[in-house]
Every structure is written in structure tokens, then in C-alpha cells.
Specification:
This protein is α/β, with parallel strands linked by helices. Helices cover 29% and strands 32% of the residues. It has 2 domains: 103 residues, Transcription Regulator spoIIAA (2-Layer Sandwich); 198 residues, Vaccinia Virus protein VP39 (Rossmann fold).
């Protein structure tokens, strides 16, 4: 089921834990680079066998093993990373996703710079902006807002689709610099107002006061985040933020909300998002609700492979 993805991307999940028959183990491909992760103590017992099988089967130019737990099963805040093939310099490279290109670094942190389970949504964001551009309905150019933007991959797709401005809000200046690199990689100029270093909550409050409007918004937060003057907890703060975002949308716009918090159930999450949007936009409707893509076999069965996402149109 993963073979058709090759037409679209060279970055996808090759093996997804229990869904593919080995609980606690995932294997991701990022071009010619591969990332092997261990999430359970039981999986670690078979480490040598799994490592050998991956090296023999895929013969990767670069392979890193990331240990998300220790042998006792305790989660590690800073996982150990072992290079099993290639050199550390080979950890950095470029992957393709539709018309976009993204820089990845498999040794930078646990996350290489591109979340694979949001691929389908990123491609849809580009397509939606392409359709809006063809309709020519926006005066002054289409605008996109990317909250908790990480390396700005959603914004790259929005700009490639025809967005005039794609604004990224993130608390990390280092991460926003990676976003600027992704813009340059795709031949996109940097436009005023596209990079905001600060919390998503702070930006939304400022945008509401300024009366800014957007044609599309993506709200893809971490489960928990600390920032100067406060924190973000997805259980407490997400739905109020969803309502505020709804007030920033132009008529005909969309809001995509997602979370990897494993305690969220898709049906209730989607209903809560729609209800929160309707507090500001009573006529809003849900376009879709979904979990991870076809390469995430068995999605939702484990904490390390969970996603709830819904897109609302106003």
C-alpha cells in the first residue's frame, strides 16, 4: 500500500509498529536516509535482529536508531541516537513532497524537520489555495496562517498553491530559521509579516485586535508547550483557541485542527472543533475528519501512532 506514495514523495513510514507486526518499532524513510525508532522495552530485546534486518533489506545510505525508552521502559526526554549506517554528515538532506522540497536532519532532534503523518493535509492546503487562486475571489491576495508552525512546511505548500502571504508563528527562532531555509529551497521570497517569533496564542490575540483575516489556518499544536509568560496544554487551551481562530477567517476560508494527543477520540474531537468554530461562525461545516495516512498502518492503536484531524469550512 506504500508503493503509490513514491509518485508523490520519497518521505514516508515504512513500518508502523503493531500495525505492521512488531509492536514498539517504527521505520521512516527520508529520501536515502532512514530512521529506526524503539518505543518499548520488549522491542529493545530484539534490537540486534531488527537492526540487521533493516540494514540487509533496505541497505540505507544512512540509518539512525533512536531509543525513546530505556531498557526498563522509562520514556526518555532526550533519546539516545546511534548512527548505524553512513556518517553523521549524511544525516542532512532534501526530500520531495509533491512540488515542494524540504530539508531534513535526522540527527538534529527526535523530529527530523517534517512530520510524515501530516503529508496529506499539507498537499490539500496547496490544492485549496490553488483553487482559490484560480477563482480569483480574494482582494489583495490570499493569506494563510500557520500556528505552531515548526519548520513551516504547511506554509511552503500554501505559497506554492498561490497564497500571497503565509504567516508562521512559533516560539523558536531556530525553528523559524529552518522555515526560512525551506522557503529558499522552494524559490519563495520572504515577505513582510511571514515570520512571528512568539506563542501562537499571542499572535492570534494580536491578529484579532488588528482585524487581520486569513483564507486558511492550520492549527497543529504539540500536546504541551512552555513559553515566556505561560504554557499551552492541548486539553485545556485548544478549543478556546479554535474559537478565536474562527474569528480570523474570511468567508469561504478553512481551518484545519489536529493533535497527536493519544487521549483524543476522533469523533468527539471533530465534534468539539466544529462546535468551537460555530461559536464564532454558526454556518460552519466540517469537510472531513481523519487519522494518519496509508503508511501508518494501525493508526490509533498505540500512543506513538495517533492523530486526530478535522477541517472546517466557513
Amino acid at each position: 500500500m506504500r508503493e503509490p506514495l513514491e509518485e508523490v514523495t520519497d518521505a514516508y513510514r515504512l513500518f508502523n509498529g503493531v500495525g505492521d507486526g512488531i509492536p514498539g518499532v517504527t521505520l521512516d524513510r527520508f529520501g536515502e536516509r532512514h530512521q529506526l525508532q524503539f518505543f518499548s522495552a520488549d522491542a529493545l530485546k530484539d534490537y540486534e535482529q531488527i537492526k540487521t534486518a533493516v540494514l540487509d533489506l533496505f541497505q540505507p545510505e544512512f540509518l539512525v536508531a533512536k531509543f525513546r525508552i530505556d531498557p526498563s521502559g522509562r520514556s526518555l526526554e532526550h533519546p539516545r541516537m546511534d548512527v548505524l549506517a553512513g556518517t553523521p554528515e549524511q544525516a542532512v538532506g532534501i526530500v520531495r513532497e509533491g512540488k515542494a522540497r524540504f530539508r531534513v536532519d535526522l540527527l538534529d532532534t527526535v523530529n527530523p524537520g517534517l512530520f510524515l503523518d501530516m503529508r496529506d493535509v499539507r498537499l490539500e492546503v496547496e490544492e485549496r489555495f490553488a483553487q482559490m487562486s484560480q477563482n480569483g475571489s480574494a482582494q489583495g491576495g490570499l493569506r494563510f496562517l500557520n500556528l505552531f508552525s515548526y519548520t513551516c512546511s504547511f506554509s511552503v505548500h500554501a505559497r506554492l498553491g498561490g497564497a500571497e502571504i503565509a504567516t508562521n508563528a512559533d516560539i523558536s527562532g531556530k525553528i523559524l530559521d529552518k522555515g526560512r531555509e525551506n522557503y529558499a529551497l522552494n524559490g519563495l521570497d520572504l515577505r513582510p509579516g511571514e515570520f512571528f517569533r512568539g506563542s501562537a496564542l499571542e499572535y492570534v490575540q494580536w491578529a484579532l485586535k488588528k482585524g487581520l483575516k486569513f483564507d486558511g489556518i492550520v492549527l497543529d499544536p504539540p500536546s504541551f508547550a512552555r513559553f515566556k509568560g505561560g504554557n499551552f496544554n492541548v486539553r485545556e487551551h485548544l478549543m478556546p483557541l479554535v474559537s478565536q481562530c474562527a474569528g480570523l477567517l474570511n468567508a469561504g476560508g478553512f481551518l484545519m485542527v489536529s493533535s497527536n494527543y493519544s487521549e483524543f477520540a476522533l469523533e468527539k474531537f471533530s465534534a468539539d472543533v466544529l462546535a468551537s468554530v460555530r461559536q464564532e461562525r454558526p454556518g460552519a461545516n466540517a469537510a472531513w475528519s481523519r487519522s494518519q495516512g496509508v503508511d501508518f498502518v494501525g493508526s490509533g492503536r498505540t500512543k506513538e501512532s495517533s492523530l486526530v484531524a478535522t477541517l472546517v469550512e466557513v
